[in-house]
Amino acid sequence: MLIATPNSQWLNRVTCGLLLSAGGLGLSQPAAADFLADSKAGLEARNFYFNRDFRQDSASQSKQEEWAQGFLLRYESGFTEGTVGVGIDAIGMLGLKLDSSADRSGTGLLKRNKEAPRAAQDEYGEMGLTAKLRASNSVLKLGTLQPRLPTVQANDSRLLPQTFQGGHLNSLEIAGLTFDAGQLKQVSQRDSSDSEDLSITSGAARAISGGGTQNSDEFNFAGATYKWNSNLATGYNYGNLDGFYKQHIFTVLHTLPLGDKQSLKTDMRYARSTDEGNSNVDNKAFGAMFTYAFSGHALGVGYQSMSGDTGYAYINGTDPFLVNYVQIGDFANKDETSWQARYDFNFASVGIPGLTFMTR
After folding, report:
1. Mind listing the pLDDT tens digit for each residue in 258-289?
2. Residue 289 and residue 254: Cα distance in Å, rounded?
3. How many domains does the chain have?
4. Residue 351 is part of which domain span?
């Protein structure tokens, strides 16, 4: 686990304590068998080329262009037997520079060189450990996390993923109901191997001010999603970045079967964000996406609007939970309204599973 600052030492102690406890249990053969037999590991290789041409006279950099190779080794153990099962997850990541230069850097693929900030390092990497406890249908994880929740979505759109340090409880005790709660303390960005405090996404067009506060070492979240049937799910999620904002997110996801491999999917989202501390956050975000699917094809239309004194608030470096969010923009500035038209094709329908196409 990457623990780089005093603020996250508590997490190191808790995680190590759990691992030592697991080792000190004197696991019986059946318990050890479940722990090992249910384990799985995988190695993922990513080759990433990124080219962005700014093509404007006022740009401080004419283009960004880098090429890199990444490797992700993931391990997930099973759980020991007993009322409370214990397990361990691990992730190791390595990024290698294949091509870059000081005048073309900044794509987010590679870590910057501290001695020469405009140049990329030849390689970078990190390792994360996660202790996990399971009781009944609930799992508590402590350590390295990659949450994908409406209030916080770890970014994985470059060579290596963004990771967090914290705790996350996921509970499935009630049929159809998924409950999540937890706290995040620090983040390692997608182009970094260092842990740092959390901050808010800002910018002049977003009109968000922290009121002198730069960082936070605490993000609390909780939420529940209820699946009414195979076609309808509703949810509520709450997030609080200490010193910056509080956020309430409501979701409705519905699929209407139309017969003969056809369906109409409706994805509606509403978020209300307000200030905390000395910040000025005040935003209402509404989004709706309608997608008609037939025989491997999908046609979608989306609408998104921002209102209030500021744009949409979310943790810096993460993906915002917005229907019109794309890799090059979130369309979440103050008073911004956006539409999108989208087409997808899944080649599995013509006998090529794993290959998809999307344009919008």
Report:
1. 988 899 999 999 999 999 988 999 999 999 99
2. 11
3. 1
4. 227-360
